[in-house]
Description:
Blueprint: H1 4-17, H2 25-46, H3 56-76, H4 81-94
Helix pairs in contact: 1-3, 2-3
Amino acid sequence: xxxxxxxxxxxxxxxxxxxxxxxxxxxxxxxxxxxxxxxxxxxxxxxxxxxxxxxxxxxxxxxxxxxxxxxxxxxxxxxxxxxxxxxxxxxxxxxxxxx
Length: 99
């Protein structure tokens, strides 16, 4: 699996190739919200709240869609997520509880 930095660069190149690198951050967040709704729908299916049949492959596709959009949003603000991940993980390791 590629590193987070490699995935972010892959998204950067893909968006530049397709003319999407200048998408507005607000539009990216709106698309993320849409994808999160689709993830919620899949989970509601799994939990029996929705009548449709749960399909883990569909859930996987939605999760990767939102990962792509997270990488895209980070790119739009020149945030290197791998660096931020490592900083966040250091903070989490120091936590002893959820408060």
